[in-house]
Amino acid sequence: MPTPLPDHARDESRFQTAKTTLFVDRFMTVFIKFGGALVITSVLGIFVFILLQIWPLFAPARVTALKSVNLPERKFALLGMDEWGAKPFLLETNGRMLTVDADSGAVSEVEIPLGEAQGTPITAAALNKREQKIILGTADGRFVIVAPGYSSSEQNGVQSIAINPKAEPPVAIGLPGVPIVDVAYGDSGTSKLVVALQSDGEKTQLTASLFKRKRALMGRSKEEAAGSFDLTALVPGRPDKILVPGTGDSVVVLTESGSVCYLALVGEAFEVRQVFKPFEDLPEAHINAAAFIFGDVSISFASDSGANRVFSLYYPPGGSKRTFGLTHEFPPLEVSPVFLVSTLRNKAFLLGGGGDLSLRYSTTDSIRWQERMPYRVANAVISGKYHRLAVLDEENRLHFFAIHDPHADSGWKALFGKIWYEGASEPKWEWQSTGGSDDFEPKYSLVPLIFGTLKGTLYAMVFAVPIALLAALYTSQFLDPRFRSVVKPTMEIMASLPSVVLGFLAAIYVAPLIERQVPSLLLCVAGVPLVAAVIGFVWSRLPIRFRKLIPPGWEWIVFLPVLLCAGSLLWSLGPLFEAVAFVVTDPATGQKTADFRAWWPAATGASFDQRNSLVVGFMMGFAVIPIIFTIAEDALSNVPTPLITASMACGASRWQTALRVVLPTASAGIFSALMIGLGRAVGETMIVVMATGNTPIMEWNIFSGMRTLSANIAVELPEAPHHGTLYRTLFLGAMVLFLLTFAVNTVAEILRHRLRERFKTI
Amino acid sequence: MKTPTTSRSDFISIRDFCFFYGSKQALFDISMEIPERQVTAFIGPSGCGKSTLLRNLNRMNDLVDGIRHTGDIVINGNSIYDPHIEVISLRKRVGMVFQKSNPFPKSIYENVVYPLRVAGQNKKAVLDETVERSLKGAALWNEVKDRLHDSALGLSGGQMQRLCIARAIANRPEILLMDEPCSALDPIATVKVEELIQELKREFTIVIVTHNMQQATRCSDLTAFFYLGKLIEFDETHKIFSNPSNKQTEDYITGRFG
């Protein structure tokens, strides 16, 4: 008979799980899931936020129709608009102005007080956008400059625009009494150049009148006629249209055969600088419309067939004078263009013909907006703020549009492509976000910044990887474990050094030191590893009696003093080396000087800056070395001991074991170390900001600076207006940086996985 | 102490050998002579010092921190502690197979030729010949000849251990040390390795550490019994197992302790 179970054995509660255990278990499951979801959501949130910030950079212009106003049946010589886009005017040939209120559509009439020219038919008119003035040419050979006299006042929060035109006295030009068919003027502030084309069917004359303005100490400045020039003979062919830049020092004349004649005022006379045909290669070369683009350096031409090209002034290779050259070519308009108007805000222009309107941006060769209207267009004007558009059709209706195009100068091509900027002699990748004048083209190419990031990373890695990996290998495989336990924490402390301290050190101490001691540095870079190799060789050839004196892992006791002596000797030999190898002759005085800073530009043609890639590589190396070292050392130390003993038992030396067994087995971990180091170098900001000079140039020259994506954000963000193009471009830079590290990390993870599969140990 | 006579009876000569891990003494005055081309088994309870002695024969203990020894070990007339001898050349002379198989994370081929590669031999003909000879010697050739360039880590436990034996004999050492080579293997793989040991003793002097008494009787010619760091008895295997002269030996082999 079995013995009865003892009481404690009947107690079932010992098989039950404690309530707290179950609670903690469930709570942690939910809590960790929640935390994980939160992390993923916030990362995605940041991603989406950046995406929303950069999206408008790639969006086209939005142009929306506002209102159409019927105008009385009249003949209009000119269409203009105030800077607010609220009250465009139309100039009648009889000298009256019609103004149209953009809000109400009300049309009113104003008489221009033309003085003694009152009543004379107006035969030509042109806008001077820069001066916000109008020039009129009369049938009796005189010109009048008129200021529309827009003024803005605010009452009860409602803005009202008033117009009060004022005319300067009429001035006769060229042939007396002959009607002016085209007129234009430029005003530089000290001089004014008025050019008029006169024709009465038989005679044609092109006249330029120069006026100099003398600044008076008191009262108004006085204008004096400083010469009149008959330009008719200089132009090959019949002149058709005149363009005068705001500088008032040259004239561009378009002829009926499609030639463009560029005349420059040199001293007291005009000379022909260039004659070219913008559409020479096309069957129909006639120029239908042309206009200076904001800045007056580029002209956009439209041919009869709808072809559209922009020519800019630049110094051609080898040339000493600026001439026009084709810089941008746009897709042709399907219909024959009738007008081409530019803006006062940026490099945009509007091309119109038939029913088509096409808003184009010169710098980036892009069509911002294009649409076919249900009416035939005759003329148009864009407001000074580039936010309103008024289009006149052939049935005398005025159509208002709102332009929403805050990032006209952006887009794929501007951000990543080569762009032919005004004044440049070739297309380039360039970053220069701000300039000195309003008509400056901001240059937003991210390519130099990506290049700078890669350059900085490369030089840092070239410096850091050999040192960090060899140090890790030595520490884990050769050094006595007692020293290892000192070296490793020391390196980890080094990793926690704030990068701003390193950057500060780089800029204030290392950069000036390296600048003066490049030959010393070169000697050390070449010499120290060589000395190390020689010491190793000598050591291995020493009889075993001597080698036995130093226990394994203590060899550095012999090695270090020798190396330090060699290093300091090489450093002090630097000036001598410089005197022998880096002598440069001053071309002006013929004096010979030994200076590497002068020798490098003379020998290689590349520049030498104090804040250069060498300094960055050196200091960023300092930031990267501890990271690579620590992780690589861990990976190397974690190689299973049985593998090392097996290798030793096969008769391998410590070095062979390290190289043939330990290194491959730890390769996945070492690869991780390199990638984390690379990530640190790519994203590093403070050191680069402080030690590179932040020059967004594209050259591999080790003695020049760079600008990285991260440094660019740090440097430019304080100057970037909220939601401006620069602001968004900086976010795009952040995105590119993110994608760069993402791509690198993904590739690294795949490779690391493969390595781990290949070298996994049992 | 009686030593059986074969080709050279004092091929490995251990003389008054004491060994210390730091302050702890692991071996006490061991003196013994291991004959050439015989299988000598070291038996004894855990911690008796048999593995320590084995690992001293090719100075693998040098890798451990804070070790010390007195006495001497002489192989074929040369002291292994002679300051003129490189420990690397000693290890080429004395191959070793470990308790846990430890193939490198390389191909089967590269595992076998590793001792040759580190010795600077890179001629393909020599390497190929060595692979075939060593794998045949380790009775593994037929199983792996079609996948020599596959990873060694895809082999079974028994195959891996035979691969390690093949690697140990690749450079034709004189002595093969085996530290409990079958302890992690199943019975079938164990039989294969034991048969292999019988084959190998024609060419190599084998010293094997084992916990398995049957294994010692099956494959060794001589047996040494260690207890608490001392050599208790060393004699022909059949003598030790049938008629031990020492009471402790008898107690151990009959299973009273250990």
Salient structural properties:
heterodimer, A: 762 residues, alpha+beta, MetI-like fold, five-stranded antiparallel beta sheet, four-stranded antiparallel beta sheet, 37% helix, elongated, B: 258 residues, alpha/beta, Rossmann fold, six-stranded mixed beta sheet, 10 helices, 10 strands, globular, disordered N terminus
Number of helices of chain A: 17
CATH topology-level name of the domain at 12-103 and 174-253 in chain B: Rossmann fold
Main structural class of chain B:
alpha/beta
Main sheet: strands, sense, barrel of chain B: 6 strands, mixed
Largest interface: A-B, 27 and 33 residues
- Tally the beta strands of chain A: 35
Task: Provide an overview of this structure.
Chain A has 762 residues and is α+β, with helices and mostly antiparallel strands. Among the domains of chain A are: 104 residues, no CATH class; 309 residues, Orthogonal Bundle (MetI-like fold). In chain A, 37% of the residues lie in helices and 27% in strands. In chain A, the strands form ten sheets. In chain A, strands 6, 7, 8, 11 and 12 form a five-stranded antiparallel sheet that branches. A four-stranded antiparallel sheet of chain A has the order 1-31-30-29, with no helix packed on it. A four-stranded antiparallel sheet of chain A has the order 2-3-4-5, with no helix packed on it. In chain A, α5 packs across α11 and α12 runs antiparallel to α13. In chain A, 41% of the residues are buried. In chain B, a hairpin with a 2-residue loop joins β4 and β5. By secondary structure, chain B is of the alpha/beta class. In chain B, the strands form two sheets. Chain B has a six-stranded mixed sheet with strand order 6-7-8-3-9-10, with helices on both faces. Chain B has a four-stranded antiparallel sheet with strand order 2-1-4-5, with helices on one face. Chain B is built from ten helices and ten strands. The chains are: A alpha+beta (762), B alpha/beta (258). Chains A and B meet through α12 and α13 of A and α2, α3 and α6 of B.
